[in-house]
Write a structure and sequence with these properties.
Length: 375
């Protein structure tokens, strides 16, 4: 099967590129003794969990359904953090998760005894109040008024009995210098309690598989926590696992002109690549250039009724025409997991490109998938 024969739109996960990332992450684990978990909130394609489980220590979840997916499809360490746990879900969560991180002392008091009685490791999320993000405020858990984690002003040493680990998550697509800065704040505020813990979780947002990421500094940070406090160190990256390992294959449906040449595609930013609007983010497009770089400039947009359903401005060597295939890169993470069928948009098919260069259609969606979510 050639790329021109694939259903459009479709996500293509490149198995070889995914494994390349996993080998980098596994190398960090081997050199430092740390454990790295897949953050399923970024990439939950369970077809690839056997491969991911070959290299990583397990998975982490943000709620019951992700926890079930990690338990059923990965079958290794299964961690969970949620801002709040529901009474009608906590028993099942405890039955399938070996590490349960609570967001507040009230949640800890409410459910800790159940978790400990089941032999689970109990953790507490802390908020070091150390913002290192400059461009993605929407993803900053240390922003004033954040609902994530216990601040030092609200810390209760008298309620730490049974707590074996501390968890923080403050980064988003950041390098290890920001982790180093955050760790200094963690030690300054919560240092007196680190030596009585068994583990610490650095959370996610580490861009470990990005080309200019400083892996040596990351490993120094891990070793510092291990040597100084005797802590086992966990990391739970999501994007770094599948970074640059997937594509979104789309087709031009029509072109028009309104002060700029416009191409309407069979995909949608708001439905199929929401980070384009939320971050915002301009995804790389194979064979294209920035405005002014190539001869023919187009504004690429989706087929929904949302005026802002625009992917960006791209230039090309030749004019676009109906039927042309376009391939957006870095489309594995925060795409499938955040899809919507707004306007009745069909969900893209899911395809795997194996290491022999063969395409395999894993899943296609139709009207029934749209209707089943409604009533």
């Amino acid at each position: 099967m050639r790329i021109e024969e694939l259903p459009s739109p479709c996500y293509v996960i490149d198995e070889g590129l995914l494994e390349k990332n996993l080998k980098i992450l596994n190398g960090v684990m081997e050199r430092t003794g740390s454990k790295i978990l897949l953050a399923q909130k970024a990439f939950s394609m369970f077809k690839m969990y056997p491969l991911i489980g070959k290299y990583l220590s397990g998975a982490t979840a943000s709620g019951l359904y992700e926890a079930r997916l990690g338990h059923e499809e990965m079958g290794k360490e299964n961690h969970i953090f949620s801002p709040v746990y529901r009474e009608d879900e906590i028993d099942e969560i405890i039955s399938i998760c070996d590490h349960i991180v609570f967001n507040s002392f009230s949640q800890l008091e409410k459910f800790k005894d159940k978790a400990l009685a089941a032999g689970r490791s109990v953790g507490l999320r802390i908020n070091p109040e150390c913002s290192t993000q400059v461009s993605h405020a929407i993803y900053d858990p240390c922003t004033p008024g954040s609902r994530f984690g216990v601040t030092i002003a609200n810390f209760r040493q008298d309620l730490l009995d049974g707590v074996s680990g501390l968890h923080f998550h403050t980064l988003c697509q950041q390098n290890s210098n920001d982790l180093e800065t955050t760790l200094m704040a963690v030690e300054e505020k919560f240092g007196p309690w680190l030596s009585q813990m068994k583990w610490i979780n650095f959370g996610g947002g580490h861009y470990i598989t990005e080309e200019d990421y400083n892996i040596q500094l990351l490993e120094n940070c891990i070793k510092r926590m291990k040597d100084k406090y005797g802590l086992k160190v966990y990391l739970e990256p999501g994007e770094a696992v599948a970074y640059n390992a997937g594509y979104l294959v789309t087709t031009v449906l029509d072109t028009l002109q309104n002060g700029i040449d416009i191409a309407i595609l069979d995909t949608s930013a708001t439905c199929h690549m929401p980070d384009v609007l939320e971050m915002p983010y301009r995804p790389p497009l194979l064979g294209s250039g920035a405005a002014g770089e190539k001869s023919f400039l187009y504004r690429l947009g989706g087929q929904t009724c949302l005026t802002g359903d625009t992917i960006g401005d791209y230039s090309f060597d030749q004019p676009l025409k109906s039927g042309d295939r376009l391939v957006f890169e870095n489309m594995a993470v925060y795409t499938m997991v955040k899809n919507t069928s707004f306007n009745g948009m069909p969900l893209p098919a899911i395809v795997v490109l194996d290491q022999a260069g063969e395409y395999h259609i894993v899943r296609e969606f139709d009207y029934k998938d749209f209707k089943m979510r409604l009533s």
